[in-house]
Design brief:
Two copies of one chain form a homodimer. Chain A has about 230 residues and is an all-alpha fold. Chain A is built from eleven helices and no strands. In chain A, helix 6 (about 95-110) packs antiparallel against helix 11 (about 195-215) and helix 7 crosses helix 9. Chain B binds a DNA duplex (30 and 30 nucleotides) through helix 1, helix 2 and helix 4.
Chain lengths: ~230, ~230
DNA sequence: CCAAAAGCTGACCAAAAAGTCAACTTCTAA
DNA sequence: TTAGAAGTTGACTTTTTGGTCAGCTTTTGG
């Protein structure tokens, strides 16, 4: 009993991130999110997930009852990262800074988590039927909170008055696009792939246009850049 | 021979839009674009298309060799409508007006052709692998033309200098979003469905922010609206 | 009115997919 | 060391899907 702690030394036994179950589930989910992002729920075969995760199909079934279970697990896990960038929109910051850093953070997410972003885009295209009522409410609530912050800024005269919901959607759309419609961006920019520099250009452009369009004319940032 | 014209009366024979082939192909394509938009290419079964178009599966095969043929036909047909709104971006117009009417037109497209828009979104998520080289070039060329117009406006001092490509992408993204991610918009606005009024609000917001952000500070439009 | 062309479809098939399982190996705690 | 738990997997069955076809009905041009 007292020695149980010591046994941990024997074989790095139970190091949580090394456990077989954790490792294999992770492999399956990683393979699955990629496929779901490309082909959607209905378009993805369990066999493909098995191949991509380098496990026999029967082993995939050992860890997940059904394809739905994999999909639901992914939604649950990814929903947390979904709104991380929103935390930049805080009432105690100046809107100029807050919005700029939100845009930067969201674009960063688009670049480094493009797959997850596309997974959600696909689920939205599907109609969001896999989102539980609680998950929908979570999204709504988080959004409403931040919309209120924007609304307050407007009431304080720190932002021009526009519909805060649609303003928010515009921020979302402009940044999200670089993940979900990367193909279109690539065609427009005539690149085989989006580079880090492209995301910086995107950030600069979006920040300049959005801030220019929502800050009161009086206190626009210095109009020299590039 | 002379009477051939008269035979047309006999049974409205050959009225081009009434021909059986035209009618059935249209039914199949209409059903297919809906399904492809929701579930993507791999996720859509021919059987589903048959059911949705109220034709026996074998009849679907009578008109289209394969699923790919249906998909390819749709891409080809829809690609024309894809860039209609872009025609508002013309060198001989004032940027303020041109951009505003582009936004309005694109949002209108998002509202009235949401299905087609989602079909393309799905194809982009897939990586655009079904686009032919010629089709890719078409998209690139059309985009480049309009980007050049924007660039000229900037050189003439009619628009603030930002990256014209990314500026363009922003316009695209903000308007497209209301079709492809309508679910998200609905959650944000807390609506069961987007109404005409929502699209008007969206238009006002996007126009105001974008114009405010890209017109030279000197000549901003009157800041009273709503 | 009629022969040929166009359209229609139930029934069928092969391939691929989902899903199951019993026997096997590896790991773990005491 | 070892018994039981956890993990593995080839082989199997069932279901679904894409695709075919022969023979039927309808339409059409003259």
């Amino acid at each position: 009993m007292v020695q149980r702690k010591t046994t941990a030394r024997r074989r790095a036994a139970k190091a949580p991130e090394e456990r077989i179950r954790a490792r294999n589930e992770a492999a399956i989910l990683r393979a699955a999110v990629n496929l779901f992002a490309r082909k959607g729920f209905d378009g993805t075969r369990i066999t493909e997930i098995a191949e991509a995760s380098k496990l026999p199909k029967a082993n995939v079934y050992y860890y997940f009852e059904t394809k739905e279970a994999i999909y639901a697990t992914l939604i649950e896990r990814l929903l947390s990262g979904w709104d991380t960038a929103l935390e930049h929109i805080r009432a105690d910051r100046e809107p100029q800074e807050a919005i700029a850093s939100y845009i930067a953070a969201k674009l960063d997410y688009s670049r480094q988590h493009a797959v997850e972003s596309r997974f959600f885009a696909n689920e939205m295209l599907r109609g969001g039927g896999f989102l539980s009522r609680a998950q929908r409410r979570h999204i709504q609530q988080v959004t409403r909170e931040r919309v209120e912050v924007v609304e307050n800024w407007m009431q304080q005269g720190k932002l021009r008055r526009v519909d805060p919901n649609h303003f928010f959607i515009m921020l979302w759309a402009a940044t999200q696009f670089y993940a979900d419609s990367a193909e279109v961006a690539m065609m427009t920019l005539e690149r085989p792939a989006l580079r880090r520099a492209d995301y910086i250009d995107a950030r600069d452009t979006i920040v300049e246009v959005i801030l220019g369009g929502c800050l009161p004319v009086a206190q626009q940032p210095d109009p020299n850049s590039e």
